[in-house]
Design a protein that fits this description.
Chain lengths: 234, 234
DNA sequence: CGGGAGATTGAACGGACTCAAAGTCGGTGG
DNA sequence: CCACCGACTTTGAGTCCGTTCAATCTCCCG
């Protein structure tokens, strides 16, 4: 990561992001997925809001675990259309590939700190320890399950159903004190759900007017009727 | 598979499929993915058109390789909406899970023969041979890559782009003598692409009128302008 | 041949999009 | 501490792509 990020900002002058401090590397020794699976410790690393962590088709040299913040992994069409495949929140591992290259772009939704481990180190550990190998497989299988659920959403659910599913997912994954604090904007939600930002806004307003949720600011949501949301979630 | 299928048809009387001969088990010794990875031989097994191979949430006891025919794996909503996640064609492995249960329903698109291997056997082989473990991981990773591409299609592509992508995928996977011979009907294609069967038919007719392909019968397609299709594929 | 499932085509509808304007909020600097 | 700025959000109006509903057609298979 160090070498790649440095290379990118020093030589290649990334077109989208003018110049960012490439954080802040610190050895980190807390208990993580990585550590518990493989005995490996990661190095902490920080990215500013909207900074790219890795690009589509780049060699997959590192595996990442979100410590704080949020990451989106997405595919882009050259006319600007974007599909976000997943949001990665604190505790989530992302960027793990079985093949040589990344298949999606990853970037920080807000200021984010990750812990990185060399993919080679993980694979070396897997050679000697079948449990590590199983853990890597399980991580990929988990992503696949999410993708399968998301294909159903994108292919067959209505706008209201998509937003209901999204709210319940976020409720499960990042509720603190009964409140969802969204790290992402309406456009991100739209690109995740295959809708426009205006549609997201309209559906949330409708849900609020029907008493299904409370909005305080655009990013703070309190669910008031999970049962009805689950009914729309199908 | 034997016990489950027998159980299903003898005791539980599956509601959708009145009564099918549960084929025709034969030891098969040809070279397969299974054999080359693990030294295991599979048992051949046949399913009639539209017969269910396994159901959503069932224990994942077997792994399957298509020998002939075609299989669809899909998710269903209780009001009948369906999203097909993938078509599995001769040579493809499907039904491999890392967790305990299947996450999709699998059924035969047309009369189909598969080779099955106990999942326990594969996992036992993986315990002793890291290459088998890697092969299992690679199979799941391959499915994930397909799902990621398909999310982009379902979330962000137009009807014409979806059909173009589908045609190029089928061209790559099942063209014989320059001709695509589709095993699936228009409804299956629609449920794969997140569209209606009418839209599929309209787009194919439009492509034909523009000279991009030739149709002989609904199931035989000859691509006449792959370059333009690739342009729509993005 | 004839029956019937599957495919095509047409017409009208509607849900989500596009374009546009106004409103809100959080962050920054005076 | 408050005012302001700009990014983000909300809301409205009109449009359009894909759906729905319906009728006809094709072709595969007996």
């Amino acid at each position: 990561m160090f070498s790649q990020a440095a290379l990118a900002s020093d030589l290649a002058t990334p077109p989208l992001l003018p110049s960012f401090k490439i954080g802040n590397a610190v050895n980190f020794t807390g208990g993580s997925l990585f550590a518990s699976y493989s005995g490996l410790l990661g190095t902490a690393f920080s990215y500013a809001k909207d900074e790219e962590i890795y690009g589509d088709d780049e060699p997959a040299e590192y595996v990442y675990e979100v410590m704080s913040g949020a990451v989106r992994t997405c595919k882009l069409l050259d006319d600007g259309r974007r599909q976000i495949g997943a949001f990665h929140l604190p505790g989530d591992v992302f960027g793990l590939e079985s093949g040589p290259n990344h298949r999606l772009t990853a970037d920080a939704v807000i200021d984010t700190t990750v812990r990185i481990v060399r993919r080679r180190s993980l694979e070396a550990a897997a050679q000697n320890n079948i449990q590590v190998a199983n853990a890597l497989w399980a991580l990929t299988a988990r992503d696949l399950r999410h993708a399968e659920d998301h294909m159903l959403l994108l292919g067959r659910k209505t706008a209201s159903e998509r937003v209901a599913t999204f709210l319940l997912e976020m409720d499960r994954r990042l509720t603190v004190a009964g409140m969802i604090e969204l790290p992402m904007c309406r456009r991100d939600i739209g690109d995740y759900l295959g809708l426009t930002l205006e549609t997201i806004s309209r559906v949330l307003s409708q849900f609020q007017s029907e008493g299904m949720l409370g909005l305080s600011g655009a990013r703070h949501i309190m669910l008031r009727n999970r049962q009805r949301l689950r009914g729309m979630n199908i």
